[in-house]
Amino acid sequence: MPDLSQIVKAYDVRGVVPDQWDERLANLFGAAFVEITGADAIVIGHDMRPSSPGLAAAFGRGAAARGANVTEIGLCSTDQLYYASGALDRPGAMFTASHNPARYNGIKMCRAGAAPVGQDTGLADIRALVERWVEEGAPESVAEPGGVEQRDVLDDYAAHLRSLVDLSDIRRLKVVVDAGNGMGGHTVPTVLAGLPLDVDPLFFELDGTFPNHEANPIDPANIVDLQARVKATGADLGLAFDGDADRCCVVDERGESVPASAVAALVAARELAKSPGGTVIHNLITSWSVPEVVREHGGTPVRTRVGHSFIKAEMARTGAIFGGEHSAHYYFRDFWNADTGMLAALHVLAALGEQERPLSELVAAYDRYPASGEINSTVDDQEGRAAAVRAAYADRSDVTLDELDGLTVTAADWWFNLRPSNTEPLLRLNIEARDRATVDKIRDEVLAIVRA
Questions:
Q1: More confident: 11 or 433
Q2: Which of 341, 375, 408, 446 is most buried, most CB within 10 Å of its CB?
Q3: Does domain 156-255 have CATH number 3.40.50.300?
Q4: Which CATH superfamily is domain 260-364 in?
Q5: DSSP string covering 23-81
Q6: How sure is the predictor about 194, in pLDDT bands with cuts at 50, 70 and 90?
């Protein structure tokens, strides 16, 4: 009996294939997806992992057996699947494990218009149905099963993105792009074709075994090749995508990583220029600079929990034009409130190409404060260690505490957030301050308690 509690996460399905799940389970997930969403038509895409085509096809068979017409768009990035869900106005399923190692695979699901499916929005119900069917046997096919068709939406996806950011008059730029053998190698050539860019491709070969490095550009170890190539070739910037190419990280002309918060602030300013007075969502781990820039450009910043389901829900509630996370996920009203690293990359290219300064000088206005980055601590008692940290700061008159997402402690010159991981025995610490010495001081204070 498969243990679905191990593979059904907060926002998606993810686990080792075939040890934890396989095509038989994918078939049941497809049937349950149609049952819970009530869809009469769905769209399915998959990444380049060896197990992805078979899992996607099995999911489609399960969906068709429950009466849904299935459109298979084949190889795609996650944001390309979101495009298809939005443009075709039907629920979607993307087969990917993002940046996880090759033996993993998963499903990111959405309702029509790329609306998220998470634990509170249908995923728990899908899991319960699959568990019942595993025990009792799969349901009978409906009298009229759905049909299956193939459709290529890559050109339409690229055209939509390029309709949102005008790069026609920018100065010519040299950009190194590291696709990490992931889906960026599939989407980047089409999206950037014909623009005034000299693209230097790194690891564009689709290879779900990730022979060059893990496709997780948030980890500094995985952008070393990109940084070296940018410096060696005198490129204007570098872009790095994760395995399913929904996240994009940026490197400046010196080979220095540009913080995701600085990218979020830059994009927010540009979106506010198009939609004056708009609302911008930022999670509570993004830099102080993000709400500051939003206010400076006449917008309204709204702080929310970490995670795409929270960001998307808040965007829908507030009518926000843009949302940014510290993890290099960027969300756009003009993209069905879904996240697309490719659109954020186009904004960075446009902002750089519309003026003459190098990227390091351009982003300096948006990168204002030293930060620790995410520091993970393995602990036996997440709740107990977090409570000890809370107790250490609870009676201090110079700080405020809130528990919107984990524990956030804020002083005049610094803040930190301590959050438990949902999937691992970890506490995640993020710190920002007005100077580096204070970052280091608070880091040592908090870690002494967490790791005691």
A1: 433
A2: 341
A3: no
A4: Alpha-D-Glucose-1,6-Bisphosphate, subunit A, domain 3 (3.40.120.10)
A5: HHHHHHHHHHHHHHHT-SEEEEEE-S-TTHHHHHHHHHHHHHHTT-EEEEEEE--HHHH
A6: very high
Q: Is a pLDDT exceeding 90 seen at residue 4?
A: yes
User: Is there a contact between 371 and 430 (Cβ–Cβ < 8 Å)?
Assistant: yes
Q: Which residues pair with 416 in a beta bridge?
A: 409, 431
pLDDT in tens, 29-73: 999 999 999 999 999 999 999 999 999 999 999 999 999 999 999
Q: 3-class DSSP state for residue 289?
A: helix
Q: Does 98 participate in catalysis according to the annotation?
A: yes
Helix axis angle, 341-353 to 78-88, nearest 10°: 100
The class that CATH gives domain 375-450 is alpha beta
Task: Check pLDDT > 80 for residue 293.
Answer: yes
Domain boundaries along the sequence of the chain: 4-152, 156-255, 260-364, 375-450
Orientation angle between helical segments 23-37 and 52-65, nearest 10 degrees: 40
**59 and 13 in contact (C-beta within 8 Å)?**
no
DSSP 8-state assignment for residue 339: B
**Burial (CB count within 10 angstroms: exposed 0-12, middle 13-18, buried 19+), residue 10:** middle
Predicted model pTM = 0.96
Fold agreement between 156-255 and 260-364: yes
Which CATH number, 3.40.50.1010, 3.30.310.40, 3.40.50.720, 3.40.120.10, labels domain 4-152?
A: 3.40.120.10
What is the DSSP code string of 409-448? Answer: EE-SSEEEEEEE-SSSSEEEEEEEESSHHHHHHHHHHHHH
Residue that is written with structure tokens 């929005």 in the block: 121
Helix (H) or strand (E) holding 197: strand 197-202
Q: Check if the beta carbon of residue 347 is closer than 8 Å to that of residue 266.
A: yes
Residue 65 has, within 13 A of its CA and on its CB side, a CA count of: 18
pLDDT for 378 equals: 97
**What letters, b where the CB count within 10 A reaches 16 and e where it falls short, cover 115-134?**
bbbbeebbbebbbebbbebe
- Annotated catalytic residue: which of 52, 77, 85, 98? 98
Q: How many residues does the chain have?
A: 452
Q: Per-residue pLDDT for 207 more than 90?
A: yes
Q: What is the mean pLDDT of residues 203-225?
A: 96
Tokens 């070296």: give the residue: 228
The pLDDT of 272-286, averaged and rounded, is 98
Percent of the chain with pLDDT over 90: 95
Token pair 């996460």: residue: 9
